[in-house]
Design goal:
single chain; mainly alpha
C-alpha cells in the first residue's frame, strides 16, 4: 500500500504544481496582453508624433534617428539665423569701394586706434600721478583742508591790506602818507 500512497501523493503534488504553473502562465499571458496593448498605444503615439515631425513608419530610419536629425536641423537653422544677423549688423561696402580703399580705411582705423591707445595711456599715467600726489598729502580730506587753510590765509591777508589802506597812518613806498 505504501507504493499506492506514494503515487497518490505524487499525483496530488503534480496536480498542484500543474495548477500553479497554469495560474502562472495565465498571469503572464494577461501581463503580456497588457504589455502588447501599452506597446501598441506607445507606437500609435510615436506614429502621431512622427507624423507631426514629418516621419512615417515606412521610412528606413527609426523615429529616434529622425528626431536626432530634426534636432541637428534646428541647431543648424539657429546657427544660420545667428550668422545672418551678424552679417546684417556689419557695414557693407559702399558702391564704388575698392579693396584698396577698404584696406586704406582699415589702416587708418588701426593708426587711429594706436593714437587713442597712447592718449589713453598718457591720461591714465596723469591720473595715477595726481592720485599719488593726493595720497602723498594725506588724501582728498587733507587736500581740502590745505586748500581751505590757503583760502583763509589769502582772505586774512586781503582783509589786513584793506584795513591798512583804509587807515590814515599808512605810508606808501616813499614814506609819505597815502591819504
Amino acid at each position: 500500500m505504501g507504493g499506492c500512497a506514494d503515487q497518490a501523493t505524487a499525483a496530488q503534488d503534480n496536480a498542484r504544481d500543474h495548477d500553479a504553473l497554469r495560474g502562472q502562465i495565465e498571469t503572464e499571458q494577461r501581463q503580456d496582453t497588457q504589455d502588447q496593448r501599452e506597446l501598441g498605444a506607445r507606437n500609435d503615439d510615436a506614429d502621431t508624433l512622427g507624423a507631426v515631425l514629418g516621419w512615417t513608419g515606412e521610412q528606413a530610419e527609426s523615429l529616434p534617428d529622425h528626431l536626432a536629425r530634426c534636432r541637428e536641423a534646428t541647431a543648424l537653422r539657429l546657427e544660420i539665423a545667428t550668422l545672418t544677423k551678424d552679417l546684417h549688423d556689419r557695414p557693407a561696402p559702399e558702391d564704388g569701394d575698392t579693396a584698396e580703399h577698404i584696406r586704406q580705411a582699415i589702416d587708418q582705423l588701426k593708426t587711429d586706434q594706436q593714437l587713442l591707445r597712447a592718449e589713453t595711456e598718457t591720461r591714465l599715467a596723469t591720473h595715477l600721478e595726481a592720485k599719488r600726489r593726493i595720497e602723498a598729502v594725506g588724501g582728498d580730506d587733507a587736500l581740502a583742508r590745505i586748500a581751505a587753510a590757503r583760502e583763509n590765509l589769502l582772505l586774512e591777508a586781503c582783509a589786513a591790506i584793506a584795513i591798512c589802506i583804509a587807515a590814515p597812518c599808512w605810508r606808501g613806498p616813499q614814506g609819505r602818507s597815502a591819504v
